[in-house]
Amino acid sequence: MADNIQLDVGAGGDILAADDVGGAKHQQVKIEYGADGTVVAVSDANPLPVDNNPVESIQTNTGNSTATAAGGSDDIDSTQINSGKTGQLLQIIVSATVFYKAELKIVTNGVAGSVVHTWIGGPILPFPYTPSHKTLHTIAEDVTAGLDGFRVTVTNLDTNEAADIYATFEWDEV
Question: What CATH number did the domain enclosing 114 receive?
Fold first, then answer.
């Protein structure tokens, strides 16, 4: 059976490239990329661009809150995003001596925004939150006074026992 497909056979229409596999046609297409309104065909001379180095400058810091009251909440902040940089959150690991609720917020000029992600964790095993993409939660450093970074508000879900809570922030600065 012929592989290609002719469109509008009666009018001598265009022919589409196809491969016949077991009686089923599979259209063959070329891969292209480019900004809106442009097309670059992938070839040996123009390979498909791939980000082989997804991070530029990983930053890490750990904060803690000791003796968070039973049923109480505490904020744990990352350090300041460096001047002229944008922080792209890679991961937060929260651990505590009790069950807890964690709420991620972005802080701009010392003011926390609304909650962008919430999760529940428990004692003993730390729980890492890893965004689905490194640009999902970002904050650009601002020269105005106040922290530009990430905050996790952790609520102690135990109504009888105070808790030690720890958070490790990891982000890329670009």
Answer: 2.60.120
Q: For residues 43 and 32, give the distance between their C-alpha atoms in angstroms, rounded to a whole number.
A: 9
Token pair 């959150």 is found at: 89
Domain enclosing residue 35, as ranges: 5-41
Strands 15-16 and 5-6: antiparallel
Same structural domain for residues 95 and 148? yes
The predicted pLDDT at position 144 comes to: 75
Which of 8, 5, 52 is closest to 29 using CA atoms? Answer: 5
Nearest CA to 151 among 161, 139, 135, 133? 139
Better-scored residue on pLDDT, 149 or 124 = 149
The residue-averaged pLDDT of 144-152 equals 91
Q: How far apart are CA 99 and CA 128, in angstroms?
A: 14
Could you report the per-residue pLDDT of 57-80, keeping only the tens digit for each?
A: 899 999 888 889 999 999 999 999
